[in-house]
Amino acid sequence: MSRRSRIGALLDRVLTTRRLVRAPVPLYRAHLGWLLGARVLLLEHTGRVSGRPRTVVLEVVDRPAPGVLRVVSGFGTGAQWYRNLTADPDCRVSTGWTDRRPARAHRVDPATAAETFDRYRQEHPRAWSVLSEVLGAHLPEGAALEEAVPVVDLVLTPGTRSEPAPLGAPARALLGPVSRSEATAVLLGAAALAVVAGASAPPVGPLRRAALGLLGADIGGGAVAFHLPSTRAAYAERSRGLPRDLVFPALHVHPVAIAALSGAGIRRGLLHHAAIVTTAAALHAVPAGAARYGWAASGIAVALDRLLPGDCLPGWVAPALWTKLVAGEAAVSASAGR
């Protein structure tokens, strides 16, 4: 047996082992499916006999149009999820930041299926070389691949959003209508930087260390939030241009507070704060989609902080703050079409 055949046989065994196939499901249920990227999805459908909700993890083989995700029933028309969708095409889809979005399924015609397989073969030749053996092993004798293997489009319902996170009014005002997955990412970012801020604090008392941890949590959560589609869109809608858009970064006096708590000196914090507000203002003058300018400015700020005389701010401060306020402002500018 060739190496490719052995890999194909192993993959076939994995795909027919229930525990292995369902291994990613807990990640989606914990709203961490974004860790798996946008090339896989969780499909929630209804059992045709039991009427109970069912789930399956599938690969997204193509995105032929906005709001359309194309999947393949590798085990033909006998796959349970395909039979369930044939009986009831209404379903929900989770992939990337999309969380339990309503959708409707329909099978594409054989010609479109053939085009999908050809495109997948060209874009993912190594994966195709293995998957084609698995698909071929379950084909009826003499059947054409595009006719025997269903290719299904999952069309996201227009005008619907991902299932929103159960947030209070203040959190919704800050983050926008984020999904549960997006809210989980924000919480993880806040928790991670709170730990870093508290652990890397200079020798200070417990209250100062706790205060640095809280500031770190706010910056870490914001650094993630401003790169989420829902938050960017919400802030882009509120955008009123200069000088109103500078109120938000101007109110972020975190560098001053961190400098005071860590012993770096108020002047150091004021310098960082002024640089952030100035760069955020400059981003209004650059073309839409120029987030790279924000990242470049962030790198310059980190370098200057290390070159200037005196005590530096803790190492995490400049990258995290500039990721939140400067690169975040660039991302919002791109969403607003500025």
What does this structure look like?
The protein has helices at residues 3-15, 18-21, 25-29, 80-87, 110-123, 125-137, 145-148, 169-175, 180-199, 206-225, 229-238, 247-251, 254-262, 266-282, 291-307, 317-336; strands at 40-46, 53-59, 62-65, 68-72, 90-95, 98-107, 151-156. The protein is α+β, with helices and mostly antiparallel strands and 338 residues long. The protein contains 16 helices and seven strands. Helices cover 55% and strands 13% of the residues. The radius of gyration is 25 Å and the shape is elongated. It has a seven-stranded antiparallel sheet.
Which key terms come to mind for this protein?
single chain; alpha+beta; seven-stranded antiparallel β-sheet; 16 helices
* Rg from alpha-carbon coordinates: 25 Å
Structural class: alpha+beta
Q: What's the tally of helices?
A: 16
CA-based shape: elongated
Task: Tell me the major beta sheet.
Answer: 7 strands, antiparallel
Task: Give the helices and strands, then pairings.
Blueprint: H1 3-15, H2 18-21, H3 25-29, E1 40-46, E2 53-59, E3 62-65, E4 68-72, H4 80-87, E5 90-95, E6 98-107, H5 110-123, H6 125-137, H7 145-148, E7 151-156, H8 169-175, H9 180-199, H10 206-225, H11 229-238, H12 247-251, H13 254-262, H14 266-282, H15 291-307, H16 317-336
Helix pairs in contact: 1-6, 5-6, 9-10, 10-13, 10-16, 11-16, 13-14, 14-15, 14-16, 15-16
